[in-house]
Amino acid sequence: MRKLIIIIGFIAAILTLILAVTPFSNIAIFPAVLAVILALLVYVISNKQSKSKKPVQYILLLTIIAAGFMVYNSIFSESTVGDTEALELREEESKEKAIEELEALDLDID
Question: To pair with 62 at 20 to 30 A between CA atoms, which of 6, 56, 79, 88?
């Protein structure tokens, strides 16, 4: 049971680290919380069984490094909105085409 929790904790911590350095750093908080919870669970189990607590330290270390990247990305990355005029023109054109297509249809409703 302890080994399974350690493996899942490492997977969550590594996933957190990977997501933290990508543009998806906002959703990296979910595996980070999971990794911390699993690390605490491993710590409790390790205390009961008198086993090594090194995996807990590694999981928390990876999670803390990922948290640093998440904070860095949230502070220094700026979201920019592209040229909305072109989007609005395309939307108008598509509305006009849709109206023309609907008018061109010959619907017999009996």
Answer: 79
> How confident is the model at residue 107, as a pLDDT?
67
Look up residue 83 and give its two tokens: 């040229």
Task: Name the residue with tokens 């929790």.
Answer: 5
pLDDT digits (tens, 9 = 90+) for 41-84: 999 999 999 888 899 999 999 999 999 999 998 888 776 666 77
Other CB atoms within a 10 A radius of the CB of residue 12 amount to: 23
CB-based contacts of 43-47 (< 8 A; 24+ apart in sequence): 45/1, 45/2, 45/5, 46/2
82 — alpha (psi -120 to 50), left (phi > 0) or beta? beta
- The two tokens of residue 17 are 């680290």
Burial pattern 72-83, b for ≥16 Cβ within 10 A else e, equals ebeeeeeeeeee
